[in-house]
């Protein structure tokens, strides 16, 4: 006889696309273990991938079963959209067409427009209207925008894309430079695109060093580094990992997805903000509205709010506008493919 405790939560349905891939391999374990949605939240995992990857997905399912994780109530591997998106509470869209050697950016956009148009329509038709949608697959900002446009019945505020990996990279670089642990650095900002034009900004960041909170510029004491190599390192970190590892940064990306969703589910800490690609409507920074753009945000009750009124100097403004221009170019190219 099986007893169910009355205080136990109902399972939530979590979809991960590209579930046979590298990022998902780390991510799925973290979700099923309770690192993302809470240690008392049962999970139903829906693993969606393309038909040729189903044999690999079977192996992933076996491994998850063999972990004997008490929160994991059911695993549903599938290649069918209508199964994958049915009644889901969270959609983590990791799968996308990767850029291959010799592929032009426009070719990458064209392939992904088709994928995320289909997934947006599936969200609109099958998912709960309260679903939280996180886009990880690159080009993440534009993929997120396309999915949003094809899911008109789901609030735009329920869509976000991952720039938390860039945020974490920026925190880590500052922490290493100051000789402190990364949790001693807060309120860095990633503006714009999850691409090489992104702007890692520490003008409002705080570093806790020797028990004293200092602005990042005072703590680092090297403006030339903060305006030069620091920005380049964060912008080009993904390429550096691929060059060294011969594979993409799957572990750190999965970790960033966990951080991103956990903050959506449980909120950001008081007085702190994180970076997240969100719909730009109504922002106070003059960024064109019909974009998914990374801003500093605070989150409460699963609702994000852009932190308004942050001062920006000419150096920052130029970089914020440059990454916005790239996103407008991506958006216009993607919309052209749709028409």
What does this structure look like?
- There is one protein chain.
- Strand 1 (12-17), helix 1 and strand 2 (43-48) form a beta-alpha-beta unit.
- This protein has 2 domains: 12-161, Rossmann fold (3-Layer(aba) Sandwich), CATH 3.40.50; 164-335, Lactate dehydrogenase/glycoside hydrolase, family 4, C-terminal (L-2-Hydroxyisocaproate Dehydrogenase, Chain A, domain 2, Alpha-Beta Complex).
- It is globular.
- The protein has 12 helices and 14 strands.
- The chain is 42% helix and 19% strand.
- Helix 4 (105-126) runs parallel beside helix 5, helix 4 (105-126) packs across helix 12 (314-338) and helix 6 (164-178) packs antiparallel against helix 9 (229-235).
- The strands form 4 sheets. A 6-stranded parallel β-sheet has the order 3-2-1-4-5-6. Strands 7-10-11 form a 3-stranded antiparallel β-sheet. A 3-stranded antiparallel β-sheet has the order 12-13-14.
- With 339 residues, the protein is α/β, with parallel strands linked by helices.
- The relative contact order is 0.12.
């Amino acid at each position: 006889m099986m007893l169910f405790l009355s205080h136990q939560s109902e399972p939530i349905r979590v979809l991960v696309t590209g579930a046979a891939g590298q990022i998902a391999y780390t991510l799925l374990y973290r979700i099923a273990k309770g690192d993302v949605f809470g240690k008392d939240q049962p999970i139903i995992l829906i693993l969606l991938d393309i038909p040729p990857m189903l044999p690999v997905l079977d192996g992933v399912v076996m491994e998850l079963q063999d972990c004997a994780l008490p929160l994991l109530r059911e695993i549903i591997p599938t290649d069918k959209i209508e199964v994958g998106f049915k009644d889901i509470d969270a959609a983590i869209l990791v799968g996308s067409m990767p850029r291959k050697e010799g592929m032009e950016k426009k070719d990458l956009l064209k392939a992904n427009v088709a994928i995320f148009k289909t997934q947006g329509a599936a969200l609109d038709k099958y998912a709960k209207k309260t679903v939280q949608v996180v886009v990880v697959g690159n080009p993440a900002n534009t993929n997120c925008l396309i999915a949003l446009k094809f899911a008109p019945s789901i609030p735009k505020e329920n869509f976000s894309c991952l720039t938390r990996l860039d945020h974490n990279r920026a925190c880590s670089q500052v922490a290493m430079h100051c000789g402190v642990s990364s949790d001693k650095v807060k309120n860095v900002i990633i503006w714009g695109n999850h691409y090489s034009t992104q702007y890692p900004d520490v003008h409002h960041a705080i570093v806790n060093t020797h028990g004293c909170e200092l602005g990042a510029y005072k703590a680092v004491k090297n403006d030339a580094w903060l305006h030069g190599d620091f920005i380049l390192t964060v912008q080009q970190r993904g390429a550096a990992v691929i060059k060294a590892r011969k594979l993409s940064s799957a572990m750190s990306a999965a970790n960033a997805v966990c951080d991103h969703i956990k903050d959506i589910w449980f909120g950001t800490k008081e007085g702190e903000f994180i970076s997240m690609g969100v719909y730009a409507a109504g922002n106070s920074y003059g960024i064109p509205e019909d974009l998914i753009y990374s801003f500093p945000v605070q989150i409460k009750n699963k609702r994000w709010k852009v932190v308004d009124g942050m001062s920006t100097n000419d150096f920052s403004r130029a970089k914020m506008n440059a990454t916005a221009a790239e996103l407008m170019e991506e958006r216009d190219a993607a919309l052209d493919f749709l028409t």
